[in-house]
Amino acid sequence: MQSLENLVTLLETTAVVSTIFQYLSGALICRKYIAKKSTGDSSGFPFICGFLSCSYWVHYGMLSNEHSVVLVNCVGVTLFLIYTLIYYVFTVNKNAYVKLFLFVLTALFGIVFYINTIPEPAQAQNFMGIVCLIVTVTFFAAPLANLLHVIRVKNSESMPFPLIVMSFLVSVQWLIYGIIISDTFIQLPNFLGCVLSLVQLGLFVCYPPKSFSGQGYKLVDQSVVF
């Protein structure tokens, strides 16, 4: 029993730390925005979606009394909000970006308000878990679209190899943690994250990058799976 508790503590610590490092990849993107004083043709949707996803996971962690989930996603909310603000400063499509962010805030507060009307804590937790699962899975859209591009051009240089490896390691840790604590809502998205990361890594073998001078390392298009 003691060894299991030690394993859970170790997984919590390593998963939280590695996830925060994964979130910090957004700082590399924002540094490019600041240096160029422009966001170019990149999308700011992942930042807003990350903010929404982490916000929902904070509430799920509070409902399920999982302090590690609350902690890591509080950090995520803060970082993604900063990234969102930086993107707003340097994008030329400010009106569209503000509308998107307001829509996300409406969705966030709407779900939180509804959760507070559910009398049964277990029912509220399950509903919040489903919402978190749906939002997290939407993160898979960007890398899935990129997979089709890689297969079409037979070149994996547009995929961020270090971040994919990090995503795989993070997903594995949270998957094991979810299995140990028997939490399906933590298990499922991270299982899918593991599969997606393995598929992407497999493409590096099938279609080795010809160079890293093209679209390589477009980190903003890589999903963050919690």
From TrEMBL:
Transmembrane segments: 6-24, 45-63, 69-90, 97-115, 127-148, 160-180, 186-207
Key words, A-Z: Cell membrane, Golgi apparatus, Membrane, Repeat, Sugar transport, Transmembrane, Transmembrane helix, Transport
UniProt-recorded Gene Ontology molecular function terms: sugar transmembrane transporter activity
Gene3D superfamilies: 1.20.1280.290
Membrane topology field: Multi-pass membrane protein
Compartments where found: Cell membrane; Golgi apparatus membrane
Recorded superkingdom: Eukaryota
Gene Ontology cellular-component annotations: Golgi membrane; plasma membrane
Key word Oxidoreductase present: no
Role according to the record: Mediates sugar transport across membranes. Mediates both low-affinity uptake and efflux of sugar across the membrane.
Record-stated family: Belongs to the SWEET sugar transporter family.
Protein name in the entry: Sugar transporter SWEET
Organism encoding this protein: Stomoxys calcitrans (Stable fly)
Classification of source organism: Eukaryota, Metazoa, Ecdysozoa, Arthropoda, Hexapoda
